[in-house]
Design goal:
121 residues, mainly beta, seven-stranded mixed sheet, single chain
C-alpha cells in the first residue's frame, strides 16, 4: 500500500523559514513526479512545486511563479522530496500536500494527508 507522509509544517512568523519533507513508501518512485500542492481556507488547491525525473538519479525542478524566489524543491532520494520555504508570508498559510505519480503517469495518483503551515503577521 502506497503512503506519502509529510512532515515539517508548523507555525512561523513572517519572514521565517520551514522545510517540508515527504517520504513515500509501498512502491518505487524513482521515475515518478513528486511535488507539493497547497490549499488555503476558502481557496482551491494550487500547484507549488514538483520534481521530474530527467534520467539516472537526476531530477528537474519546477516551481510556481508565485513562490519561485522563495521556495526550492529537491529530491532527497528516489522516495523522498523536500521543499525549503524561505521568507514566508501570511499568504503562504495553507495545508501543504505531497503528491506523487505512478511512474511516468500524467496525473497524481497518490496524495499525503497534508501538513499545516501557518505564517503569522
Amino acid at each position: 500500500q502506497v503512503q506519502l507522509v509529510e512532515s515539517g509544517g508548523g507555525l512561523v512568523q513572517t519572514g521565517g523559514s520551514l522545510r517540508l519533507s515527504c517520504a513515500a513508501s509501498g512502491g518505487t518512485f524513482s521515475r515518478s513526479v513528486m511535488g507539493w500542492f497547497r490549499q488555503a481556507p476558502g481557496k482551491e488547491r494550487e500547484f507549488v512545486a514538483r520534481t521530474r525525473w530527467s534520467g539516472g538519479s537526476t531530477y528537474f525542478a519546477d516551481v510556481a511563479d508565485s513562490v519561485k524566489d522563495r521556495f526550492t524543491i529537491s529530491r532527497g532520494d528516489a522516495n523522498t522530496v523536500h521543499m525549503q520555504m524561505n521568507k514566508l508570508k501570511p499568504e503562504d498559510t495553507a495545508v501543504y500536500y505531497c503528491a506523487a505519480t505512478q511512474g511516468s503517469s500524467r496525473q497524481y495518483d497518490y496524495w499525503g494527508q497534508g501538513t499545516q503551515v501557518t505564517v503569522s503577521s
